[in-house]
Design brief:
Helices cover 0% and strands 35% of the residues. By secondary structure, the protein is mainly beta. This is Xyloglucanase.
Length: 772
């Protein structure tokens, strides 16, 4: 997904107005004629029912937005997993962008969100994941007039960065609170400030805005990820300077420029000027206006976040007098983080809260003032080091894995209050409720008033329904837990109850990211997983189906997990780790490793599911086979297999040498291949134009061959497909409302339940489909 390409369009698109189009999914599946000799069949549609395998959270939530007109209407945005609306009756989040298709996977990254305070049914999303070449498509403004139930889109002439540095600043997208046909968008990459006057349908650059931003995190980064100009980062309206139906006169805009970070217009955006006397040396992450007292508040940091930031300040600007005042909760000398989260209590003017978003140790910090920033109290304080006193209690029993299986020494505690805490909002209708986002969840409280009366507030996860994990691998063993997952950032889980949050992630050892896992087909108690860590260990074994783990040794030079395979009976393993010059094999549980011969480093490895001595590998168009437990591999050149692009393959359980291979790229071979002779020959399935994953599940009633599942393009239609006749015909089992962007990571059926499939997404967690 990270390919090189051209840079975003720049200033040449300055005055371009854009026409909006309907955001739709692929058309209904048309007839397909897959031709795996000698059979011929068709692709049909039969939508399954879909829901998440529950994890609850698992990723960064950089923005929470409450509607200012309607109580309990709130939204959350994620960096790679779309947007959500709060459902008060169920106290859960409802996903809003599941209809995004494969070709628009980049729009699952949400860099900003705006809820219309004039017409609460309207909501807008600024979508796009990367501003560099990793995302081939431009960004878009998605607009909805039914609270996100359906969307229309306007593609922009530049990219947006929902998963780029600076994504916690904002909000970059804003609706005029008096004339809601007017919207502003702060753009990255030097593209400046943009405006729509027709409710987001068309957009044009505000040519009078003088500063497109100057700040880049690392100008030397050739990938374009750290070297992008973070741009125009927030827009705030002064509601006192307008009336219903007329555009708000005074608008404040924040810019990623340490010397010129706040601009203002007093003529509804016709002209702009730098606000005099403003602080310099820092970037303003947020700008929030208290209209009752006439104060504009800024939280600032020396870096763009969300990971970095060593210094910061909080400032107050008196809009009537032009006075700037440093109201930072801590002195510069004591500050070792930047400020970002910022919220004003709309029910109690003068009450505000801010976060030290980059205070990683011993924990994040939240500050509160009830006198417009003159004095502050803190969520926690040091007493006698390393002891701390807390203004809160934290109950994560609803999401128990948030302890991360840690047992830290003071002053650290588990669970943590959070990290990357750039989203912070007090409910504008209820001073008792506050929510904030972290790198792993949404936390909140409903007794915030206790903070000011000497009591403690209760912080709990408010994340049900919001599933944001990036899924690297999935396994559904024939016995034991129905599902084992390999996840980014939080490692993964043994899912014993698909509808319940797992009690804990994989521990002993804990990986930051699990890249691959496997179980022994005839002894599902034996499980292996590999993953990424700053240092060893990067491999772990289990003898009780993933309930408990112990670490294995690893070859010299390992830097990442790569892929791993377990022998059918658990007697040995083959590992292709990152950073080494070889693939490795072992007997037992990895007390020592020996280099395999005949197979290149970095190959994808799998095992035969019947013969414990047989392992397979693939790289750059060549299939490799070992019949001696992975000690030696033999290349089996098979013309027509994909020479480039990602490839995933699996061997069919219970049948020796039966292999299915999916993958490739649009620049070369791409599709689905089948071998029944351990890879000596492969047959490409006709009618399958593209395929990216392959998995197996319980055979259909009366069928002799296990059900096949794939994320593919068949008959010209992208979707999730099932075959019950060994690939002769295919049925699309998802529909246009359930597409989840990119689903090319992993797929597996359930060997115990016919019609049940588990689909990996890149930011929407694990989807479980069941035959209707």
């Amino acid at each position: 997904m990270r390919s090189k390409g051209s840079r975003p369009l720049g200033a040449l698109m300055a005055a371009l107005a854009l026409v909006g189009g309907l955001l739709t999914a692929a058309a209904s599946p048309a007839a397909a004629r897959p031709e795996p000799a000698p059979a011929r069949g068709t692709a049909q549609a039969d939508a399954s029912t879909w829901k998440n395998v529950r994890v609850d959270g698992g990723g960064f939530v950089p923005g929470i937005v409450f509607n200012r007109k309607e109580k309990n209407l709130a939204y959350a945005r994620t960096d790679i997993g779309g947007a959500y609306r709060w459902d008060q009756s169920g106290k859960r989040w409802v996903p809003l962008l599941d209809s995004l298709d494969w070709d628009h996977w980049g729009w699952t990254g949400v860099v900003s969100l705006a809820s219309d305070s004039v017409d609460p049914d309207k909501v807008y999303v600024a979508a796009g994941t990367y501003t560099n070449s990793w995302d081939p498509g431009n960004g878009a403004i998605l607009r909805s007039s039914n609270r996100g139930a359906s969307w229309q889109s306007t593609t922009l002439p530049f990219k947006l960065g929902g998963n780029m540095p600076g994504r916690g600043m904002g909000e970059r997208l804003a609706v005029d609170p008096h004339k809601n046909s007017v919207l502003y968008l702060g753009a990255p990459s030097g593209n400046g400030l943009w405006r729509s006057t027709d409710s987001g349908v068309t957009w044009s650059k505000v040519t009078s805005f003088p500063n497109p931003g100057t700040y880049v995190q690392d100008a030397s980064d050739t990938s374009g990820y750290l070297s992008d100009n973070q741009g125009v980062v927030w827009v705030t309206f002064d509601e006192r300077t307008g009336s219903s139906g007329s555009a708000t006169k005074t608008v404040y805009v924040g810019v990623a420029d340490k010397n010129n970070t706040v601009y203002r217009s007093t003529d509804a955006g016709a002209t702009w000027s730098r606000v005099a006397g403003q602080p310099t040396g820092y970037l303003s992450h947020k700008g929030v206006l208290d209209t009752e007292n006439g104060y504009l508040y800024l939280t600032t940091s020396d870096k763009g976040g969300p990971y970095d930031g060593e210094k910061g300040q909080v400032w107050r600007y008196a809009t009537a007098t032009g006075e700037w005042k440093n109201i930072s909760p801590m002195t510069d000398a004591d500050t070792y983080f930047g400020y970002s989260g910022l919220t004003v209590d709309r029910q109690k003017p003068g009450t505000l809260m801010v976060t030290g978003y980059s205070s990683w140790w011993p924990d994040t910090q939240i500050f509160r003032s009830t006198d417009s920033g003159a004095t502050w109290t803190r969520a926690w304080d040091f007493t006698s080091y390393p002891n701390r006193s807390f203004r809160y209690t934290q109950d994560v029993s609803a999401v128990p894995w948030l302890t991360f299986g840690a047992n830290p020494s003071p002053p650290e505690v588990t669970p943590k209050l959070g990290w990357m805490t750039e989203a912070l909002e007090i409910d504008p209708f209820d001073s008792r409720r506050m929510m904030y986002g972290t790198g792993a969840t949404v936390y909140g409280t409903e007794n915030l008033a206790n903070w000011d009366t000497g009591g403690t507030i209760t912080i709990t996860p408010m994340v049900k329904g919001l599933e944001e994990t990036a899924v690297n691998d999935l396994a559904s063993p024939p016995t034991g837990a129905p599902l084992l997952s390999a996840l980014g950032d939080i490692g993964g889980f043994r899912h014993t109850d698909l509808d319940a949050v797992p009690a804990r992630m994989y521990t002993s050892p804990t990986f930051t990211t699990t890249t691959s896992l496997d179980y022994a087909e005839t002894n599902a108690n034996t499980v292996v997983r590999v993953g990424n860590n700053d240092s060893a260990p990067r491999i772990a074994f289990s003898t009780d189906n993933g309930a408990n783990w112990f670490q294995g040794s690893e070859p010299a030079g390992v830097t990442g997990g790569g892929t791993v395979a377990a022998a059918a009976d658990g007697s040995g393993f083959v590992w292709a780790p990152e950073g080494t010059s070889a693939v490795y094999h072992t007997t037992g549980f990895g007390n020592s490793w020996a280099a395999s011969s005949g197979i290149p480093a970095g190959a994808v490895v799998e095992s035969d599911r019947k013969n414990p001595k047989t392992f397979y590998g693939f790289k750059a168009g060549i299939f490799y086979v070992s019949t001696d437990g992975g000690a030696t591999f033999t290349a089996r050149p098979s013309s027509g297999l994909p020479a480039d692009g990602p490839v995933r393959f699996k061997a069919l359980p219970g049948a020796e040498g039966d292999i299915w291979l999916a993958g490739g790229s649009t620049a070369g071979a791409y599709g689905l291949w089948h071998s029944t002779d351990s890879g000596a020959t492969f047959t490409k399935l006709g009618g399958v134009q593209q395929a990216d994953t392959i998995g197996f599940g319980k055979a259909a009633p009366g069928a002799s061959y296990q059900a096949l599942y794939t994320s593919a393009k068949i008959g010209g239609v992208r979707g999730i497909f099932r075959s019950t006749d060994a690939g002769a015909s295919w049925t699309r089992i998802n529909d246009d409302a359930h597409q989840w962007g990119w689903t090319g990571g992993a797929i597996t059926g359930d060997p115990r339940v016919y019609g049940r499939v588990y689909v990996a997404t890149n930011g929407r967690g694990i989807l479980r489909g069941d035959a209707s």
